[in-house]
Amino acid sequence: MSREWILHVDLDQFIAAVEILRNPELRGKPVVVGGSGDPAQPRTVAATATYEAREHGVHSGMPLRTALRRCPEAVFLPSDPPAYEAASERVMAVLREFPVRVEVWGWDEAFVGAATDDPEALAAELQQAVRARTELSCSVGIGDNKHQAKLASAFAKPAGIYRLTGDNWAEVMNDRPTDALWGIGARISKRLAALGLHTVAQLAAADPADLAGHFGPTNGPWYRYLALGKGEAEVVTTPWVARGHSRETTFPHDLTDRAEITRHVTELAERVARDAVAEGRQVIRVSVKVRFAPFLTRTRQSKLPAPTTDAGALSAAAVSVLGRFDLDRPVRLLGVAVDYTMPDT
DNA sequence: TCTGGGGTCCTAGGACCC
DNA sequence: TCTGGGGTCCTAGGACCC
């Protein structure tokens, strides 16, 4: 008797795997990918590191200069988003050939909805097809909903299959810390711990009204739902409509000259305008982000009088918003973000 | 370890209006 | 008149995720 399952397909070491596919000599070596690939460049971090590099204490998010210190023999490669995008599309195309529903969740992940009486067999077929057609390895999690399937794929790594459902949720998850849940990070986990809620089981047993008082009417009760193993179970196959778009730059060295800062904001706004035109979207709000040295981030935003994609109008708006900052400290990052008008609203 | 870039969603507070 | 309450819009910031 077949029923609905949610599978989470997670490509293993995706970025590194794509790089190794292009250059097989990298296989088995410590490889670090990030930025322009120059480990001497300050303020650049690793997007990913292979297991061989991780053995030296290198991990994603680590500054490249630190990675170089820890693993001088590592191969440093520049990040190449178009290559990852192309590889990702090949994988998603393989998944779509099955009689399933596919919801793409970033470059290296997808949720798959399927009616089957043997989800493990389907998972194995997906893995084999992806490997045969793209030479990429993936892990597959099986669940009643996206939350369970997502956690399950992490337990399946590398290249495995794992089932996490209401049947084994408590047994597998109850004693884990709250940040094991998908949607609870270090900050919330710490605040929960301060309330005496350290484990998933403790959070599941907490009073929803109490949680609402501490974390808001939506978030508080939602954290408890996560701890109970609940989650979204609908696989949406229609393409995602982006809410907005942004461009930002961290400068290798701080900016102090006002004219130079204004010039960079103008350029970022023009890039965002080109992106909006390319995506065929109208802009309704413009935000400017300034990160001051050493690491203080501030944003200012402004709703436009009317939707537009005009580069001149967007840069003028961004520069006007920039004028509301006190630029009395060195600047390490500038960003321009826009919100799009949404169809049917 | 001196901390990227690109997203999404939620919350809180003030303005404004009735 | 010195003062209520609700609804909505806008802004700034925080948290999370890949």
Automatic annotation (TrEMBL):
Pfam families for the chain: IMS, IMS_C
Domain UmuC, first and last residues per copy: 6-185
CDD domains named in the record: PolY_Pol_IV_kappa
EC numbers, comma separated: 2.7.7.7
Domain of life: Bacteria
Keywords, sorted A to Z: Nucleotidyltransferase, Transferase
Record keyword Transmembrane helix present: no
Catalyzed reactions per annotation: DNA(n) + a 2'-deoxyribonucleoside 5'-triphosphate = DNA(n+1) + diphosphate
GO molecular function: damaged DNA binding; DNA-directed DNA polymerase activity
Leading EC class: transferase
A GO biological-process term: SOS response
Gene Ontology cellular component list: cytosol
Record's function text: Poorly processive, error-prone DNA polymerase involved in untargeted mutagenesis. Copies undamaged DNA at stalled replication forks, which arise in vivo from mismatched or misaligned primer ends. These misaligned primers can be extended by PolIV. Exhibits no 3'-5' exonuclease (proofreading) activity. May be involved in translesional synthesis, in conjunction with the beta clamp from PolIII.
Similarity section: Belongs to the DNA polymerase type-Y family.
Name this polypeptide is given: DNA polymerase IV
Organism placement in taxonomy: Bacteria, Bacillati, Actinomycetota, Actinomycetes, Streptosporangiales
